[in-house]
Amino acid sequence: MNKMKLMAKNIQQMRLDAFIKGLKNKEIKYVPKESSSSKIDWSKYDKAQVNELKDMIIFIKDVVDKAVVRLSLDEAGEGSRGRPPYPPEDLAKGILIQQYFGVSNRVAEGFVDLFKEKLGIEESFSYKTLERAYDYPHVAMILMEVFKMTQDPVKDKETKFSPDGTGIPNSIKGNWEKDSKSDEDGKGFTKMIAMLGTTNQLISAVRFPDNPYAHESPYFESLLEETAETYSAIDQISGDAAYLSRDNCDLVESVGGTPHFYLKEGITLKREGSWAWTDMLLDFMKDPQQWLRDFHSRSNVESGFSTFKRGFLAPLRKCIHRRRKAEAFARVCDYNLKRVSRLHHQEGLPVPWVAG
């Protein structure tokens, strides 16, 4: 009896090995399911593009003002610890405007002065004040709350997510794809590891490791936990082979999701305490095409990263590392706000923080 069970296990393992080999050799090819969705409504697309600037000015004003109320910072005294000399909400608005336009501190001072009435900023401030704002704790708190609020419109709608990493150039010469392996000192790029929704492509969680060559998998747990805290449900997590492990499969299962991590040769069906691991492999063998369709939903995440980079062409300008990370995070906030603007015009997504 034991020999029969062992033989059955060996046969299953041989099948798995054959399937993975076929996947690597392109014998098992991913065939996308024919889409039944309608074509792009170009009039709505045009409307989204035309209205983006107006939306961003309104969104930045309203979302920052709401964030201040939610944090009760409007009740904090002028002499509270870490409070900047100018209202922190005004500085946060200045940072978001600067990163949206991708301009230097001096040019950003002019943009703030130009849009201050629309942004609800009472008093202009110098470019040096804006530069120092990237260090202020109250400003950081506001930006973190803004980031959370940008996801409110989709938190009950998005259920599928995928993690991935990329590099944001610190220099105009930087190209992540070409230069990441030759950048020996790691100063050419800031590493960004993020979790994105595969449907709406909003960033749900993000980390900026100090080491630009940091492996992505160790950050998976914190990204997943933050995403689970924000969204109502998680049905599926898909990721490349860098995230393939029993521990990560268990983490996905613990938040109610199904893991789809790209498979490597040499892996086994042995549970070693992880039912989620074995179930993932058995699902792959049962219906490879459906499994691959679920996995390849992560291609939308790669599209999201591409949109992020095309939307912020200027390299990160800050020389001080902590300010550079704050600069990168402000871009993430702006990216999410731009995505909400597009979804609002193209798909009728309500925007809860807009006043009136």
From TrEMBL:
GO biological process, one term: DNA transposition
Domain Transposase IS4-like: start-end pairs: 164-329
Stretches the record annotates as Disordered: 157-183
Domain Transposase InsH N-terminal: start-end pairs: 53-108
Domain of life: Archaea
GO molecular function, one term: DNA binding
InterPro entries named among the record's database cross-references: Transposase_11 (IPR002559), Transposase_InsH_N (IPR008490)
Protein name as catalogued: Transposase IS4-like domain-containing protein
Organism: candidate division MSBL1 archaeon SCGC-AAA261F17
